[in-house]
Amino acid sequence: MRFKAGTVRRRGVIAGLSAIAMVGAPAFAQAWPSQPIRLIVPFAPGGTTDLVARLIAQGLGERLGQPVIIENRAGAGAMVGSEFVARAAPDGHTLVMSNIASHAISPSLYPANTVRYDAVRDFTHVALVTSNPSVWVAHRGAGITDLATLRARATAAPQGLDVASSGAGSSNHLLIVQLAQLAGIDLHHVPFRGAGPAMTAVIAGQVPLMSDSLPSAAAHIRGGSVRAIAMCSAERHPSFPEVATFREQGVDLVCDSWFGLSGPAGLPAAIVAKLNAEVRAVLATADVRARYAEFGGTPGTLDAAGFTRFVAEEFARWAPVVRASGAEAG
Amino acid sequence: MELLLTNLGHGFAVALTVNNILFCLLGCLIGTAIGVLPGIGPVATISLLLPITFGQPATTAIIMLAGIYYGAQYGGSTTAILLNLPGEVSSVVTTLEGYKMARNGRAGAALTIAALGSFFAGTVATVLVAASGPLLTSVALSFGPADYFSLMLLGLIISAVLAQGSVLKSVGMVVLGVALGLVGTDVQTGQQRFTFGVPELSDGVGFVSIAMGMFGIAEIILNLERPEQRSVLAAKVGSLFLTKEEFSRATPAVLRGTVVGSLLGILPGGGAALASFGSYMMERKMSRGRAEFGNGAIEGVAGPESANNAASQTSFIPLLTLGIPANAVMALMVGALIIQGIQPGPRMVEAQPDLFWGLIASMWIGNLMLLVINLPMIGMWVKLLQVPYKYLYPSILVFCAIGVYSLSNNVFDVYQTVLFGFVGYIFSKLKMEPAPLLIGFVLGPMMEEHLRRAMLLSRGDVMVFVERPISASMLAIAAAAMIAMLLPSLRKGKDKALAE
Amino acid sequence: MKINTKDLLSGIILILFAVIGYWLNQDHALGTARRMGPGYMPMLTFVILLGIGAIVTLFALFSGPNPLDKWTTGEVLAIPAAIVAFFATYIIVERLNIFQGNYYILGSAILAGCLVLAIPHGWRALGLVHAGFALFGLLLEQGGLMLALVGCILVSALADPDHRPKGVLGMIIFLCVLCWWVFIKELDIRVNVWPQFL
Hints:
heterotrimer, B: mainly alpha, two-stranded antiparallel ribbon, 2 strands, C: mainly alpha, 6 helices, 0% strand, Tripartite tricarboxylate transporter TctB family protein (chain C), membrane (chain C), transmembrane (chain C), transmembrane helix (chain C), transmembrane (chain B)
């Protein structure tokens, strides 16, 4: 009984609260940020998204005068954390580390009834933080050195050539599907639970090939435990100038994983402009620049409108690839 | 050998600076504290504390994080023994004999042997990491998916004997655990299974929710229903020290646990979890006190505790030699290193000798610190049992609640825990053991993953499981264990039925 | 025939899980042995579970007697009443449509079910401990940690008849301070401490 009384009182309180929030919104914009900013990372701690977020969080907090606190809310291909932000108050105190999974692939991959946000309309996309290409690597003893030998091996293998990826429905999985189509070869996708175990299998030679994001592969390429075959970028990567692109080798396979900063829809323009400027300022510092370069990330330079267009393009680009790949999450 | 000593000497020189010792101590203290708190595990803590380490040199940062990691292993066994609350996969096994020992008034002895065994195992494992890290890496690399599958299968069959009651029912619970582990996103296709459209379930049911519900909350309710038992619990505290007999029984268990743990810890993924289960089953079959198992046998605490600490040290091997994280905590370590501007990878030993050898030396120092911190605290922990239960249980409850919530900052986990509290209560009334269920839950998903990958790579040829020598020998042991287990236990079951 | 009631029920529970799981698994593609679909492993698991459940049930028919504790009429009636309370609350709160998201509907339904379950003496501990836990979840995000702690401790304290108001009050103050110190000050977990509507 106590409980029922509580709900009635709370309903009034919540109604009042939202009224205050609506009236108070312009006032907030003046004083923003008035409290610590929660930056939701929609993946578990330790992954690339988490890392990218942590690298800018400190600098961003110093510049804004309020700490930026990372909060991991993982689940459903990064959709749980993103949905949380889509539903948060658009006051600039709750942001999400948007990325290729949460805002380009997962909404097409998961069944429609579990996708509870529109990747473009339900968010205010603020800034592109960093992007990095994917790279294909091979086991050192596999005898695959470039696209030509890859093609030869795939043709020779009676039941397709095994290629590992960090998981079903990841951008790397979709790249395998795309390369098989573009090059007309038979590739046999072997999904793993994350890039780490997949890389282990390639180093050990259980799987000869892997499509991986540059950050997780960079150390292994530099250390010589695997051999880089081709980069999925438009031009050769400055940190790995010796690795040829797919494009150079005759197949137009280009894919950047990207990470950005987004807030709920309806974020005041003043906050968006300030946040975008501060993110770009943090990205311009030598320290952050060096650390992103270390694992092959390129700092983003888009303004908010440009980033919003970028997300929309990415969403439109991946939807048909997801359908063609036959990958599904429902 | 000489080179090893030089390197270790260098490591100690790095680790024994005042700053590094302080951060090692700080890490161990925090680790112990969060290990004792149910729910909040090392992953959550390390990610919360990561920003603190930014200002420190890389070596100091990683020494502190490592301290948190093995400190948490120590602390986790404390609540498992005292309150039947396993906060981590590895302390599930400790509840089985440890909590029984506490009920017999031997909580002090159980905590003491856990600390001593862990220290010994940690020392051995540290030497192992230093001496043969790269060599052991190649062992880990030679494990293919078929071998993993067979190892997991062996683990599951082994775990069926873990439980007290009938073997058949525990096999049922293992399989039920495997079934529970199916909930979530299918790794191979990305499809959602048994999630009923709840996004929170897409990463599976939370281990901590199950453990808190089925062990912690269910135990609270059972204690509240039996007021007479609580008073017994509070009255009997007994000596903190091991008796001579306990000591001589525990020693071989510690030795065996250390070997099992060191070897299984190297395997990425399930290694550390399998280590404590494997050790428990080994003790149950081999130790002198096997007749006492189920009623508080000290070997059942000494072995698994040593094994899980050894495993937590050797699980650094894949990280340090390959740059590949063996579990979520290690993944965070990689993140911490990258933030520090160090790319963990195969060349870390040469490129960062300070970091590599300093970390290894600090592991041993950390273990020593944990022993020093924990031995005097045992008296205090045991006093906790003398707190009247009516004050103790609401405290356990709120700590569980906060811990469960903080896992992913989501109230869904809290409600999920309520569900498992009910399930745990019903199961305990029906004498269905929760421990095998949890083991099935942990190992099941990995087993499925490896099974499917093995079949994918072999293009559907089942023979791969018997053609590979590692896999074949695992399966042979599993078959032998099954036969050895079923025959006497069926007979025992009959005897028991007659006796009743 | 000496029936082991506990084992019999265990077997039936296992069979029930297996059958429901198998039925739910119909949606998932089985695939081939080479490329197993998402339904392959569940199918194997539930078939094995069914087999074990059947054997447990069979053995239970002869290995008894091992009866359950006797239930009073109140205890028997409380179970369907709690289930009804759960669903009724769920439907009512859903219709009221005041709380969006965050599982408020689920939480209130669980709380109501647990409170009803706690009416007969035998289920008091079972119902109230769980009710306290659910109340914690319900109050936490809007009410803040302190209110959630007070609610959880109050309700769960009712489960033990030994509690006196003074002792409970002392315990609430002590635990609130302790939790604030441990979780907010030291660990800095991300949660509101005080009610959001003040």
